[in-house]
Amino acid sequence: MVLRVARIRNLFDEPDSRKIHKKTIPALGGVAIFSGLFFSIIFWSQPELFIHLRWVILSLVIMFLLGLKDDIVSIDPYKKLFGQIVASLLLVVWGEIQINNLHGLFGLYELLPAVSVGLTIFVIIVIVNAFNLIDGIDGLAGGIGVIASLIFGIFFLLADHPILSLIAFSLTGALLAFLRYNFSPAQIFMGDGGSLVVGLVLSILTVRLLNIEVIPLFGQVILPTPAIALSILIIPLADTLRVFIIRIWQGKSPFHADRNHLHHQLLNLGFNHRKAAGVLYGTNIFFIIFCFTFIDAELNFLFFMTITLATILSQIPYVLSSKNKKLSSKEEVIMDAA
Questions:
Q1: Which of 98, 124, 194, 290 stands the most exposed, by the fewest C-beta atoms within 10 Å?
Q2: Is 13 a member of any domain?
Q3: Cβ neighbours of residue 262 closer than 8 Å, sequence gap 6 or more
Q4: Which residues of 58-81 are buried (b: 16+ CB within 10 A; e: fewer)?
Q5: pLDDT tens for residues 238-292?
Q6: How many domains does the chain have?
Q7: 8-56 tens-digit pLDDT
Q8: What is the pTM of this model?
Q9: Helix, strand, coil % (nearest 5) of the chain?
């Protein structure tokens, strides 16, 4: 239905110098993703539990409308950031979705209320924008979203949190349906209306996960939830940190658009969209398995091991791409000399 409306109204994402696609493609996949998520949550939630969802739903509506406007009429990045902060405040202050305890990460445990509010808003904004930034090739953001929401859903199901598992599995279903039309060659893009919504849902699930310590399936082991959350969202978080560092190092704004993302580096190595997305899917799954393999390890050790490993692996495509460029330059010099 969204595809049909986009074609009738000529609502397309036009290619330009920094975009990968070469033809006009609708960027309103967020409408379908939000609709599937919204109606699933409303339909499956129990009446007595619905009151706890109202702030989540309100924040999702704000984030969706913000992204949809940006898809149709581009808006200033700082206005977009302001809208994200408003949606985050609703969740944190009135929805009481807050990070209350870091379980020993950096030596911190129970947080003061003001610190909890500030840190939670920061985490939500980071995750939302990190997910928005990886939406650069066919099937990548949708596939990473499926992996993350599925793992979150299983976690919350085991921890007996039905509302959170409902939200997570609703997102999984919406994204699986979307991937049918978005996996390469894409017929439709997620757009900001989709990526901001998916990022917000994943940030809510992340914050709630950080407040869980024990799940019966794992016995009485205190779960390293900050490390688990990091492993689940490792692709968007590592990629965003990497490109922000590169942009700042080059004297540019961290929000300056470029082609330094991991998926761009993989394309430079000759991967097509399917293979590049598949490599990043596999990497995400590897980090989740890695984290659960060492689930008994000390939290700070596991957290920094995950960051270190992600840093090393994220540099491999860049190094290989640089070598290919040098080889190509040498070949051109030899050809010119000949």
A1: 290
A2: no
A3: 134, 235, 238, 239, 242, 280, 314, 317
A4: ebbebbbebbbbbbeeeeeeeebe
A5: 999 888 888 888 887 777 777 778 888 888 888 888 999 999 999 999 999 999 9
A6: 1
A7: 666 666 555 555 545 678 778 889 999 999 999 888 877 666 677 888 9
A8: 0.89
A9: 75, 0, 25
